[in-house]
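Case study 2.
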Amino acid sequence: MSGSEASGAPGQTRSGPQGQTSPATPGAASPGTATAPTPGPVGVALRPTAKALPGQSRTHNKALVLRTLFHDSPLSRADLARRTKLTRVSISDLIAELIEAGLVEELGPRTESRIGKPAALLGLDAAKSAIVAIDLSNTETAHGAVLNLRGEPLAKRKVAIGGATGQQALTKVSNLAKQLISQAKSTPVIGLGVASPGIVTQTGTVEFATDFEWRHLPLAEHLAKCLGIPCHVGNDANLRALAEFTFGGASAAGLMVITIERGLGAGILLDGVLLQGRSFAAGEIGHLSAMVDGDRCVCGRYGCLETVLSKPALQALGTAAATANPQLDAVGQAAAVVLAPIASALNLTDLVFCDPSGLVTQALLDAIGQAIAARVLPTISADLTIRISTLGGKAALLGATALVLSEELGIT
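Prediction:
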């Protein structure tokens, strides 16, 4: 989740991650017209590594090849056959199809010395296709980009939201998407990904986004009809976690990505599964009680974690956030009240703070780490890494890109 909203799961207009079919929510693209969301699966599995079994689709095996090349190229056809456990005949057939589609390219012969004819190496052809991504997590300014399949930006654009809500905000987002698509020029756009605050269902419906006053808005469906390309929408905190996994090299064994903006939210990957919850609200940690006698929160209660760990709260600390002091210790203790039970119950290995404003300091991380270590078993704290995201302010855009890669090509 992001801000004071609960987190959801990546959404899409056609199918869920790894082929889980989810029909688009019917109805007009206007707030307040749809029914309550149907409870979904508690998690979405990522990055399977086995070949498809009899009866499963050819699409699975193409995705397996693309995913392998995305992470491990350059590889030869024989390398791919060994890694995917597909036959060499199947690999040759799939590679021919993917080269024709402009998704894979031959990179030339292998140069190291081996007996016999050198094998031709293959790689993902990232330049022949584009993805459009939009980040709505900053509700004052929407940021967008055109990126290649490696997540490298080709063009950027932003538009002021300026407090727009409802249909007006939706129109601004649609116009930004159109402008970005035009900037892709002759490069085919395989899809649009949107990182949205609020509760987002598997089908890309924004069930609840306070700042935009969106209720039951089938955002993915609306944009797909408006733009004529596949569109996928996910909660911004979940997509930042997906970005860390896809582009940041993070393990999905036990990863929690904590987003600090106007409020506080988290995306969680556990044993290769993106946790989303029955009502798409997994990761709602900002309004967990962290202090008995804390300040009043925007939700109306007292002592919520985001009253001390959010953009406004850290801005209020000012220079006190730079070095160890009693104020930081208090924030660390409050954070540990919430994070230590989660880290222990899920046996997390990584706590990654995504901080677009650059307010999280090493001193703050140290305070949080020390407070967590005092509350959990040594076997938990010894394996727990606490760090700042290396993706910086582009994490949400990369997460939206990763969502399109996952839904359209099976790459995570």
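The chain is about 30% helix and 20% strand.
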